[in-house]
Every structure is written in C-alpha cells, then in structure tokens.
Hints:
single chain, alpha+beta, 4 strands
Amino acid sequence: MVGGLASLQQRLSVPASFDVWRRANRCNGLAPVRPLPRRGSGTQPDVLVHAATGCAGGVSTVLYEVRGGGHRLLAGDDWTLLRLLGRASPDIDPGRLLRAFALDPRRIPGLPQGGPG
C-alpha cells in the first residue's frame, strides 16, 4: 500500500515517544527522576519514574523506565518461553498502574501522593 495508513506509521524511541506525549499534554518541565519503591531484590530490574510537570489540565505524563528489564510485563510468571523476552521487575505492576491512572489521571501511579506532577 502506498500512502494511506502505511505512510502515517513512524517508529519512535521510548524517549522520543515520551517527548511526543509531553508536547501533546502541553507540559512545561520535568521533575527529578524518582525510583519506584523496591519490592524485589537488588539483582532484579528496578524502575525509575520520569514525570513531566506543568501539564495542561493538571494531567500526569509519566514514563516508567525498567532498568535491566526485557519485554515482559509481570515478574511473577517464570515460564521458560517468557524468559526469552527478558527479565521483568516485581517493582511494577502495569495493570495496577493503568487502573490507578484511569481512576485519577492527575496523580502519578506508584509514587506516594506527594510526588511531582
């Protein structure tokens, strides 16, 4: 297919995607990077939270960086095939974060209430 939807496809890096969302939400800054509270051991991937500040309407615009992780969402299942996708972190539960964001898009899921936003 020439043109159409195929011409709209563009692959972006994770930082570039975060920048797109920051611009779309009219954010004017970045908060200091904060770690999510640890639930795993020191040898498991950890999670850093990158949060934009000053976003229109007070919405949160957040990037969760799983350092040392792979392409898995949950750490609980250690099925052999899933190990091919890399390591997961018990510090983050994507389903719980999405639910928390849907219920209150003005706060940063996973961080204490006083977190940047």
